[in-house]
Specification:
Helix content: 55-70%
Radius of gyration: 26 Å
Oligomer: single chain
Shape: rod-shaped
Length: 114
């Protein structure tokens, strides 16, 4: 049998980082379109380069996909953290505390550190 665990606080931090990254990509499609238009105006001197509108239009769709994937990733990480916390909470009800003191030191605290 395998075990899996999650630290909900750490997972939420990852979700927050992903949400911050997604926020930075919020204007990506518009920024990309603006860069294509600026490049087009610079490159239109004779003999000129054609196809900028098609290139910009085709790839702007991909930039929108990147933005949407980043948003979805952030939501999924946060949802996973929440679900992990719920699972831990539900599982904790099955555990009972020890009825007596342990007769040996536990591996933490000042007595363990030498």
């Amino acid at each position: 049998m395998t075990e899996a665990g999650v630290d909900p606080n750490e997972a939420h931090e990852g979700g927050t980082a992903a949400a911050n990254a997604a926020a930075l990509l919020h204007d990506l499609p518009e920024d990309f379109d603006q860069l294509v238009r600026m490049t087009q105006s610079i490159m239109n001197a004779a003999p000129g380069v054609e196809g900028w509108n098609a290139f910009g239009g085709d790839h702007e769709v991909h930039m929108m996909d990147v933005k949407e994937h980043a948003d979805t990733l952030a939501r999924n990480i946060q949802a996973g953290a929440t679900e992990g916390a719920r699972t831990d909470e539900a599982s904790s009800e099955d555990f009972a505390s020890a009825s007596s003191e342990l007769n040996r030191p536990v591996n933490f605290g000042p007595s363990f550190i030498r």
